[in-house]
Amino acid sequence: MSNTHLFLPSGFIRAPLQNGLGRYVPQLQRITLKFCKNHGGSRGVRDFIEADLLKFAEANPGTVVYLKPRRHRSACMVAEYLNGEKEYLSCHEYSREEVSKWLSYLTARSGIPVMRFRKYQHTDYPTIQGVWTPFTHQASEANTMNFPNEELSKPIDLQPSATEQLLEIFKNTQIKDQPSDSEK
């Protein structure tokens, strides 16, 4: 185990509540590309602006893109998120592909700073079985199925509930307790 986690700030998860329930709200509010028109270290950012910026803007309509040319300064990106966080990324000597990859990374982030997560619970005997997820005990055939699937859409034949079973037992005892016609 490395000790790199010792230098990370620690905290609890602060995720946007129910993001994706109904519709997904992208967390990147605006991105500012700062570059020099002449400096060689800004060439990758300039190439990205000329070739791929319109495609990026069409693919991310909820994100505002600002271009800020400045003289004799190194290229950088400043991402601002809905939760108020800002992230600064130096793009000095980046190629067009690297700028595109970092921009897609910043777009997919939530804006929460990278941190070592803390838990509210602690145990001296952690599990060796791994973390449970809703997909842990699912059939592997679901990986290759085409959805919607007829078999999975059929209603499940449910067992009678405890209340229904008690009512059935009560009805059977009522029938047995009634005198028959020959006994009358």
From TrEMBL:
<keyword id="KW-0687">Ribonucleoprotein</keyword>
<dbReference type="InterPro" id="IPR036249">
    <property type="entry name" value="Thioredoxin-like_sf"/>
</dbReference>
<dbReference type="GO" id="GO:0003735">
    <property type="term" value="F:structural constituent of ribosome"/>
</dbReference>
<dbReference type="InterPro" id="IPR007741">
    <property type="entry name" value="Ribosomal_mL43/mS25/NADH_DH"/>
</dbReference>
<dbReference type="Pfam" id="PF05047">
    <property type="entry name" value="L51_S25_CI-B8"/>
</dbReference>
<comment type="similarity">
    <text>Belongs to the mitochondrion-specific ribosomal protein mL43 family.</text>
</comment>
<protein>
    <recommendedName>
        <fullName>Large ribosomal subunit protein mL43</fullName>
    </recommendedName>
</protein>
<feature type="domain" description="Ribosomal protein/NADH dehydrogenase">
    <location>
        <begin position="37"/>
        <end position="110"/>
    </location>
</feature>
<dbReference type="GO" id="GO:0005762">
    <property type="term" value="C:mitochondrial large ribosomal subunit"/>
</dbReference>
<keyword id="KW-0496">Mitochondrion</keyword>
<dbReference type="GO" id="GO:0032543">
    <property type="term" value="P:mitochondrial translation"/>
</dbReference>
<keyword id="KW-0689">Ribosomal protein</keyword>
<dbReference type="InterPro" id="IPR039927">
    <property type="entry name" value="Ribosomal_mL43"/>
</dbReference>
